[in-house]
Known about the structure:
By secondary structure, this protein is of the alpha+beta class. The chain folds into four domains: 2-174, Sandwich (Immunoglobulin-like); 184-270, Sandwich (Immunoglobulin-like), CATH 2.60.40; 294-568, no CATH class; 589-699, Glutaredoxin (3-Layer(aba) Sandwich), CATH 3.40.30. The protein is 41% helix and 22% strand. The strands form five sheets. It has a seven-stranded mixed β-sheet, with no helix packed on it. A hairpin with a 3-residue loop joins strand 12 (184-189) and strand 13. The radius of gyration is 30 Å and the shape is globular. The chain starts with a helix and ends with a helix. The model is unreliable at 1-18, 281-293, 329-333, 364-372, 401-414, 432-440 and 575-583 (pLDDT under 50).
Amino acid sequence: MKGALLLLSALLAAVPASGQAASGRSKHVVATLVPETTAVAPGQVLTVALRLEMEPEWHTYWQNPGDSGLPTKIRWTLPEGFEAGPILWPVPARIEVGPLVSYGYDGEAWLLSELRVPATAAPGSSVTLEAKVDWLECKEQCLPGKAQLALTLPVAAQAAPDAARAAPFARARERLPRPTTGWKGEALAGAQAIALSISEAPGAATPVHFFPLASELVEYAVPQEVTSAGSGFRVVMARNPNGGALPATLDGVVTTADGRGFTVSVPLREGAADAVAPPKPPAPAAPPAGTGPSLPVALGFAFVGGLLLNLMPCVLPVLSLKVLAFVKHGGGEGGALRHGLAFAAGVLVFFWALAGALLALRAGGEQIGWGFQLQSPPFVAFLASLFTLLSLNMFGVFEVGESLSSVAGRAPRHGLAGSFWGGALATLTATPCTAPFMGSALGFALAQPATVNFAVFTALGAGMATPYLALSASPRLLALMPKPGRWMETFKQLMGFVLLGTVVFLAWLFGRQTGIDGVAALLLALVLVAMAAWAYGRGTASEASGRGRVLALGSAALLLCAGLALGMSQPQRATANAAAPAAGGLAWEPWSPERLAELRAAGRPVFVDFTADWCLTCQVNERVALASPEVAARFQAEGVALLKADWTLRDERITRALAEYGRQGVPVYVLYGRDASKPHRLLPEILDAGTILKALDETL
Length: 700
């Protein structure tokens, strides 16, 4: 359902009809302007929603983002006389990442804005409402997103409501905090805490959490103590010691147990130092994954996940045919076992190669997981072309040995090689289908050292290969297989249709990445790939003449190259650097290429921190690793110059510098030694004190 909604948003973006929603997207978020009515009326108010649809595990931020983040911004460009009100923010949620807590939204968020239409608007005409939208999308890595949206609506004497959008707008208004009527209370600030006391709160259920509007007023990560008191309630929050002067009022939103939110604005005054007791600090963080019994559990999950891969629809066609190939070409019990072992070796080698690619990309600053290949439009185009070829092979358009999935020749020695490559290809075809079923094991593996990573991926491969090893090793199990016959051809062709369904999924994914024009280009590319398969089939037919065979095979090669080039060439849609505060007792200088060159020429070691206020991983690393007393002492002892490149606002020089290091986002950590002739050292994006100290040992 989520995928259908995102696809619908992409399709709507390509339809410039009046009254349609206007969409744009970043890498992980679809932004859509949705009008509540089909027209605007003179002197009335038009409500427009900015709908943000986020991929799973990604989020955007509330007007006070909490420990890190940036609020979404809308900059309107409106016809003369139109006026836009502020964003009406829905009730946010707490988002916990390490020791930090932010306020924001995941899944889908509707941000409403009210636009006042001037009385001079002329019925019968039309108006175009333009909005430049900026947001921050975060998972573990944070990326800035933006869209330029335009919405054209007719002007009518009366604004007709859009019946299809009535329910979504009603739900969006339900998510807005309600104004408080008859509430009485005040807020008192002690030395370490702030207490919000509401003596009367008619209409409110049990309070759950208070979201303050003022930034840096409280410690967001410290749990709030919420208690009921008569007909009201009390919320105690840890005060931020670096929050500065108190505002005159405490403003924010309190959420209640029934899911509603209420606006709060009460006087805020200083109290005696001990007037408010601070809430209890959060419990110590759990030990990192990978210690104690977590590894055996993760290996078990990975093995079971590998078994489940064999049930996925994009894997069944390839693997079912491979089992039949074992029966046909196994050459008895021993021969079947050799094929099973070769197939298992292909599965394991591909899993190891994938684990190595994940580690290499993560070491280069990418924040990726299983199925990361599908984030690349060229790879999606390649995979769609491969599945198209597989399906056409199963339909009999062309033949390569027994099937393209087996890649097996007729000689026994080539048959074993075919089984090996069949295992590798089966694993490749599994990648689009596995993410929902192995999240626990892969989430564990991708946060661990290389040895644990490879152990988990080995367990995945072993789980996937086990059924085929068991089948090839057991004569009794082989005897249960049906005898070869005409049914095998029918079954193979049915699996071809299943693979075409996978091509449909890949085309949808490609459309989300490149737009509707990209989908059209991909479909044309698949037509060329299909023509290449047809030409190859004609050229390899037994009745083909020598000259005709050469012409057909040459045409097939050209068509295949043209199709792959067309599909894989589609493009993906589309600062201030001030001095940073001290961390861990260290003084940081603002980064610039000139200052870096000056320090390197003087022979000083340099540590550069590419960071941003909205980057969750950056904030965690600063508090956990860079502020460590051991790291601070070592930096001072070695005379390391500390430069902070603040990418909170867009800075072209920082953007170019990141590109030079092979990165596209923050955090990035670079260590230069004293010897200017030696290359710099890139540190992992997830830091701890030990990692920094080891890098200093090996670099200085």
